[in-house]
Structures are given as structure tokens and as C-alpha cells.
């Protein structure tokens, strides 16, 4: 397949590099010029759970001149979703699939409003990654990828995409309900991201301590109550246990929110913990723990 990865941060590099190794024609697109230069001149230096190696990759700062792609994977931060899709419009043809593997709620719908819902596949991943520097990424944890059509149902396109990812070494399965998929992943982020960002610890610290496990439990159970009120059936029977399992599997990883705080960037707290609060208000379900986590992260942002 011809594949473009929009947003070549840690996760974009892990997926783009792995798919490139499997023989797909992959282009990484990112606005960080120094990173793009390093990728082209030195290759992607990938270390961690999938092995230490250097992968030759092709990277650009602009999609101008690239042909229509078979698959466009969106990995930018949620705040930049709409701008990124408009920027890569030349890559999206009638048969192009646009896949979002971003954190938080609302990304798939934003993309569908621009390119058409029939082109959109939403996915979640348990892989974890950390940027070490230009052209350098640590693959800090691995797990399955789960994909669903935005319009619902198991389609040949969806199953073929899952098979291609699995063949490349990215264990992937397809499911019928995208809402169940996105909310199940949201609750993982709800439990891990803000807590690790506030405590400045790796994911693996959360399952080790009574107080951190309790914070995770309180935040995730609030999210599960909101999901239940929306009539969403989660894909994991125990979302708290699943969140702690993901934290353990991605133990060395710095969560994306912690990386943002360390770099003094705007975080995605509004579409993660904030999403639980906002959806809960619509349904009359209180979420005070997630509201507090949201306020604390926003306070950190305001003090940069």
C-alpha cells in the first residue's frame, strides 16, 4: 500500500517505520523540520520492545507533490485534526481510507465531516512510544490495535487493513462498534495520562502504588459510568483492570500528556478527562475526579 502518516511523533514513527519495514510505501509527514531531516539522512533510530534498529524512511514537511494514497493515518494532536486533514487533502482520493489512531473523543467525526464518513476508520492502540530526539524514538510498550468503521459494521476493507497491520507485526483486530472501541481506549487515557503528567512518572509506576491505583480507579470508573449512561458497551469487561494492565505493558513509556507537559505544549486533557466531564454533564452524570484532573493540567498549562 501507499501510506502517508500525518504526524511523525513517537507513535507515527512506530507505525510508519514498522509498515515501511514490511514493504509498504510509507511517507512520514511532520512540521518539525529538524526531525524530518534526521529521518531522511540517518533513518529512523527505533529502540525498545520491538528491537533496536535503524529503519530507512521517507519523510517530508509538506504533502505537496505526493500522489493520492491508499491509506492516510492521522497521528497529530487533537487540536490540529481539522487543519491537518485540510493540509493533506491532495492525498485523499475516492478510494483512500483515512485512519485516526489519535487520543480522545471527536477526531473521527471531525475527519468524516471533511472527507466523508465513509472514508474514515477509527482505531485505538496499546502501543506506547517516547520521542528521544530528532529521528529517534523509543518503542516503550506494545499491545493490540483495534479498528472499526466510523459508519459501523465489519467490512472487507476493515478486515483487510487489520490483516495488513498484523502481517507487518502490529497485532490488529477489527470490531463492529466504533463507539465501544473509542470509549474503551478513552478510559485507558483517562486513567493514565493526567495522573502520570501530574506526578511526572512513567506509566509503569501507576500499578505499583496504592494511591496511584486508587486515582486510576476513581477516574476510570467515572468514565465507565458516563459510557454506560450513553448506552455504550465497553470492549473490556473490567476497564480499571485493563487500564492498569496497559500501564504495566507500557511501563517505561512517558504518556503523551506527560511529554506535552515536559515540553510546555498544550495537552489533550480537554478531549480525554474533559470529554468525560462534558459528556457526563449532558447526561446528568457527575465526574468530579476527572474535573479536578482537568483543572490541574490546565493550571500547569497556564503556568508555562
Please tell me about this protein's structure.
The protein is an alpha/beta fold and about 300 residues long. It has two domains: about 1-175, Rossmann fold; about 180-300, N-(1-d-carboxylethyl)-l-norvaline Dehydrogenase, domain 2 (Orthogonal Bundle). Helices cover about 45% and strands about 20% of the residues. It is built from eleven helices and twelve strands. An eight-stranded mixed beta sheet has the order 5-2-1-6-7-8-11-12, with helices on both faces. A four-stranded mixed beta sheet has the order 4-3-10-9. α5 links the parallel β11 (about 145-150) and β12. α6 (about 180-200) packs antiparallel against α7 and α7 crosses α8 (about 240-250). The chain is globular, with a radius of gyration of 18 Å. The mean pLDDT is about 95.
Outline the secondary-structure elements:
Layout (H helix, E strand, L loop, with lengths): L1 E5 L3 H12 L3 E5 L3 H10 L1 E5 L4 E3 L2 E3 L10 E4 L6 H7 L9 E4 L6 H9 L4 E6 L2 E6 L2 E6 L3 E5 L6 H12 L4 E3 L3 H22 L10 H20 L9 H11 L6 H7 L10 H11 L4 H15 L2
Parallel strand pairs: 1-2, 1-6, 2-5, 3-10, 6-7, 7-8, 11-12
Antiparallel strand pairs: 3-4, 8-11, 9-10
Helix pairs in contact: 3-4, 6-7, 6-8, 6-9, 6-11, 7-8, 7-10, 10-11
